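User: Can you predict the 3D structure for this chain?
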Amino acid sequence: MLKIENINFYQDDILIENHDLTIEDGIITSAQPSIKSNKKAERLVVPGFIDLQIYGAGGKLFSAEPTVESLSIIEDDLLKKGTTGFLACIATNTPQVFNECIKTAKEHRPYAKNCLGLHLEGPFLNPKRLGAHVPEFVRKASLDEIKALLDFGDGVIKMMTIAPELQDDDVIQYLLDHNVVVSLGHSNATFDEAISAYNKGIQTTTHLFNAMNPIHHREPGIPTAVFNHNKAMASIIVDNRHVSFDVVKFSQKLLKERIFLITDAVTECSTGPYQHKLVGDKYVMPDGTLSGSSLTMLMAVKNCVEHCNISLIDALKMATEYPAKLIGKDKIFGKVALGTQANLLVLDDKLNITDTIFKGDLISN
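Assistant: Here is the predicted structure, written as structure tokens:
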């Protein structure tokens, strides 16, 4: 049993103050007013973060070192930083690298902690909107290739970013039928093509504004399609490098529960096609192209609150509840509620993590 005394937490958007939480067998079993302290609680308990797009952590870029050991190092590093669930992302690469990453994820699955599976960002992208992706590996998907990929993946492929304007409808439908979250990204789709893709069932959009056409008053493009659709979601990188804080601000006002945070984080790497170098607070490729971020999920939440005029409760939902719902894990992640698994963070009054609780166990930070 674990007891967290004299804390605050949000329940249905209401701040519940000065309570004790009891955790038994990994489940939150009790929330009672604290009777041991007359002091106003300064600590806040929130759900653990969910990052649906991260390439590496702890000095390990997964695609460059696709081993069980490196995946375990990434898991442990992210747990200490408050990410209790994540999808390991693989950028456009050779079939051999994809297969090795998938094989490793399957081997690791029985022992996985916070790694929930894989996000394949490519190779079925639009060559006109690649960003830092390697053009020689980009291609159109065939249905046979997708069938073989998912068969080999055996359930570890949870999400895939594609350019839908270049893919056949039967490919998209096969992914959706096999419970893969499909995200529109690295795409040059027109407004009408993007709306059509969302209407076909594509659920979300990869790193809004990046690697897609911009908003234009006569050619509205992908961002405007997301804003105008009634269901389409979008991830966003809140580092003021990939997207301006002011753009994040109006995007959140328009999308509300349809926008969620990702880090898109990488780590320094000097081998393989993705040789990320940290320059200041951003990562770039050898030619200077902006690549992944240096964000943590906590930094993204703080940026939302401190620079984007987003309330703390909304910023936390963007990092927890909304991505959890997208991947169908909202009964396990994203809430502080009785009967739910205790994947929690304890924050001090400056929003720094003092403790991570994962499946009811206290993780040393």
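The mean pLDDT is 95. The chain has two domains: 2-46+334-363, 49-326.
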